[in-house]
Amino acid sequence: MQNPERSVRAVLGMSLFSTKRPGFDKSSMLLLPIFLFFSIFFVAPFIVIFLLSVSKEGIVGWTLDNYGRAIFNIYYSEILVKTVFLGVIVTVLTLILGFPCAYFAARAKGFLKSFSLVMVISPLLVSVIIRSYGWMIILGRNGLINKSLIWLGLIDNPLKLMYNWTGIVIGLTQVLLPFMILSIYSVIENININLEEVAETLGASRFQVFRTVIFPLSMDGIASGCIIVFMLTLGNFVTVLLLGGNTIVIPILIYQQVLNIMNFNFASAIGMILLGTSLIFLYFQIKLLKRKETRYVA
Amino acid sequence: MLLKSRRRLAVMIIIFFLFTFLAMPSIIVVAVSFTSASYAQFPPRGFSLKWFWAVFEEDTFMLGIYNSLRLAFLTIIVSNMFAIPAAMALARRNYRYGATIMSFFMSPLSLPMIVLGIGLLLFSSKLNMGLSFSFLLAGHVVITIPYAFSAVFGTYRGLEPNLEESAKVLGATNFQIFRYVILPLIKPGIIVGSIFTFIISFDNIPLSIFLTGSRSVTLPVAVLVYLQENFDPSIAALSTLQLIFVIGTLYLLQKLYSLEKLSKIGQ
How far apart are CA A86 and CA B242, in angstroms? Predict the structure, then answer.
């Protein structure tokens, strides 16, 4: 043996990592770099935003005018409300479309399962810009849909599917659908299929099986999927910009205020409102996570 | 299966439409990139590779590709540098506030990137640093650390602690344990984390759009600027190239590591 003393110490439990000892020691130094980094480049910027949002000019002068303007000025509050509304619509749509996909993928076996997973995950590898650009080609005045409908003789004039909320909703739904699907998929995977079979044996129709067995047990996945999609919709910039024409949502408003109008204080206030909303949902996400860890699904 | 065959057919049709819905934009973009027309529409007219050549001739695209690749690789290195030690510490030690610490490191996932983007921009200008590359890199690292961390964390937690303790008993130093025992075993986790890191960094817009200048422009930002004024198929060709790159890389990795095993790591 090379170093008897070291091996004795190891056996006495003073190895690199011992699992159940609380408190900080040498190995905790490993957390120091990341903490420092996060403090400077993650926490500090948000503090700067906060300070800017409550100041008149730069970071001097305490005022709540920026928030007041965001909430009470009709032009801006309308944008806030419309963004939230967009979030709700996209969330509901992705839930309706995504749940069947998730269930199908979870219950599939072998090649069909791998194929389904690839179909769901691969859009995520494609940049948001590419997918939004694809929708521009499909939804435009001379786009695929309009050309097909006119060719089939169903309409005379092209439908306005782009540069408005319709295009945004369609585009965002497709862009964010994989997130909802994956969220629900991972939960349904854990639901024992015997439960469904038992319910059917006891006489439940497929709808009853869904209502009483699958749906309640997949609530966690549904909830976390909704949170993810909602937050991503609120923060979405590219799809709205490309498919929405002159439509303004919160991220675009922030962009305009920072880069065009250079009203950093007001932009920060809007950013803080967005951040506040995210923190609320982050709190719910964490609670969901804790619930998931303590539940046991048969 | 539990479904009757008629219902099964209906389900398959619905699923088919949904999958088509998911894949349609990407497929159409690829198809359009081979058109010979000068306008992006589907179905594409003619067949030509001229738009691919157009991509290489457009300077902003080339600059964007170079900057994005450079940034992505640097992000991978720095992200892992911070995430691996943190994952090791949190996976083995049972801190009282370990869950909170972990949520803190994972929180960039849930917070709006655009706020971080303007935060970093305004923070750097308060420090009179202007559009510095280090802030751009730092921003990318912050948003990718959650991925690098969780991939390594999941892998590391699955390892037997006995392996390290045996190595210790046999007389290895901590560094030797890390290099010869731990590192080879967490390699799949590092690779998965790095893949996600690369994708997130390369495609990132909310951060890059605020923190890049005309010389440090990244590809997505260059494309966005281009799309505001042009609608020709060169973007389609560029997208096709990007897709080939991504698919090619994944295929290579699939050869080295089974994809199903990798997709389990995130959980």
Answer: 30
